[in-house]
Amino acid sequence: MSDSLKMSGEGQEDVTKVNEGETNERPKHFIEQIIDEDLASGKHKTIATRFPPEPNGYLHIGHAKAICLNFGLSIEYSGTCNLRMDDTNPEKEEQEYVHAIKEDVAWLGYSWNKEVRHASNYFQQLYDFAIQLIKSGKAYVCELNADQTRAYRGTLTEPGKDSPYRERTLEENLALFEKMRAGEVKEGQMALRAKIDMSSGNMNMRDPVLYRVKYADHPITGDQWCIYPTYDYAHCVSDAIEGITHSLCTLEFEDHRPLYDWILEQLNFDPRPRQIEFSRLNLNYTLTSKRKLKKLVDEGYVDGWDDPRMPTISGLRRRGYTPGALRKFCEMVGITKSDGVVDVGMLEFAIRDDLDHSAPRALCVLRPLKVTITNYGDQVEQLEGQRHPKMPELGHRVLPFSKEIWIDRDDFMEDPPKKYFRLAPGKEVRLRHAYVIKCEEVVRDETGAVIELKCTYDANTLGKKPEGRKVKGVIHWVSASDALPVEVRQYDRLFDQPNPESEGDEAGDFTQNLNKHSLTIFQEALAEPSLANAKADDRFQFEREGYYCLDVPRLKNNVQVTVEGSGAQKSKLVFNQIVSLKDSWQK
Question: Which of 260, 272, 267, 273 shows the shortest CA–CA distance to 129?
Answer without folding.
Answer: 267
